[in-house]
Amino acid sequence: MEQVEQLGQQVIHLLPRAGRPRGAPVRADDFQPSLRTELLVLQPTPFCNIDCSYCYLPQRRVRERMSPVTARLAARRLRDDGLLGNELTVVWHAGEPLVLPPAYYEEAFAAIAQEIDADTRVTQAMQTNATLIDGGWCDFFLRHSVSLGVSVDGPAALHDRHRRTRRGAGTHAAVERAIEMLHARRVPFHAIAVITAATLAAPDAFYDWFERCGIAELGCNFDEAEGAHAASSLSGHEAAHAAFMARLLERSLRGRVVVRELVAAWRQLLESPPRWQWQGHRWPVNTQVMPLAIVSVAHDGGFSTFSPELLGQPSPAHRDFVLGNVHADAYLDALQREPFTGLWQAIAEGVAACERGCAYFEHCGGGAPANKLYERGDFAATETLYCRSMVQRPFDAVLRHAEAQRGLCA
């Protein structure tokens, strides 16, 4: 019965809120400044060579791949729609990118470069589990100045709980070998760790491991309740997470590893956020709620926007979050029709609700739509575990430290 109830809740999360009418067509010139794409997420393949227990991707056994023609069209549509600004980051993600060979990316990178005007600086980025890194990959990363992210959860006891091969073996030793090789070949990279309840009891061991491995930049995600992963282990452990973040702040202030969330919190504390405008609303910039600021393209050319995690998720009510296909459709044309119009209506309602009721709105700009949907069942919802974990607690830790330092200097 419990499993049936859980399945029912997952289905409910994919349904539109009862009574909400279809959204009206949206015009690009309704937005100021003009719509621009900052992040193009390309799925080279859904396949992943390992089987992480907290992965949200539903098709990670599928071995299909994106053709260079699809990659070219994904970039061409940005140019033709006037969505290119001064900078564009192309992230190869939503599967393990390194299961495809360097030669595949040589061709894909070249195809994209041919479609992007010279006045747009393009950064190619990859997020990898690192188990397949070898000398050939190191040469490739250096040749193309790839912005490389390595997914590793810290010490082996934490990492191997969740990041395992398809036969159940831990992957930590392989990742450590890859990190050693990256350092030896002088390949720049950062790390992203997934924080679980087990991580919270060992902040010093966690931080020490990254410092010992010579990792200078660390992002701390958590096992979010999204897609195929129905529940987060941080639920019920939020006080412990607050203490964990406070300890990471103490360590990072005198250590050699900077933590992405804490750096972002310092910036939020010290700087006024840029703003964007839609129909009289002026909101702090948050690319997850801005149409086409993030464009995600699946291996078959289907595209979406808003939270990248939505692409590929099953949802009959939202047409699987596919707004069109680069082989047939322009990005801007998708703004005129369903499913975009309904998604945008609900997301805009959620941003407005956050503005009315959340003290952190100026530092967040309306939350993450995917987390609102999977945690609260509605894009128009407000606060989520994601908000508290990724925005509120890091900001609170930094603010308390700043206030304490001011008190000492008074």
Q: In terms of per-residue confidence, which ranges show pLDDT below 50 for 5 or more consecutive residues?
A: 1-19
Strand order of the largest sheet: 8-7-6-5-4-3-2-11-12-13
Integer-rounded radius of gyration: 21 Å
Per DSSP E runs of 2 or more residues, the count of β-strands stands at 13
Proportion of strand residues: 5-15%
Summarize the structure in words:
The chain is α/β, with parallel strands linked by helices and 410 residues long. The chain contains 13 helices and 13 strands. It has helices at residues 2-13, 68-80, 102-113, 135-143, 156-162, 172-184, 203-212, 238-254, 260-270, 340-357, 361-364, 369-376, 385-409, and strands spanning 31-32, 39-42, 87-92, 121-128, 147-151, 190-195, 217-222, 258-259, 275-278, 281-284, 294-297, 302-305, 324-325. α2 (68-80) runs parallel beside α3, α8 packs across α13 and α9 (260-270) crosses α13. The N and C termini lie far apart (60 Å). Mean pLDDT is 93; it is low at 1-19.
Reconstruct the topology from this structure.
Elements: H1 2-13, E1 31-32, E2 39-42, H2 68-80, E3 87-92, H3 102-113, E4 121-128, H4 135-143, E5 147-151, H5 156-162, H6 172-184, E6 190-195, H7 203-212, E7 217-222, H8 238-254, E8 258-259, H9 260-270, E9 275-278, E10 281-284, E11 294-297, E12 302-305, E13 324-325, H10 340-357, H11 361-364, H12 369-376, H13 385-409
Parallel strand pairs: 2-3, 2-11, 3-4, 4-5, 5-6, 6-7, 7-8
Antiparallel strand pairs: 1-9, 9-10, 11-12, 12-13
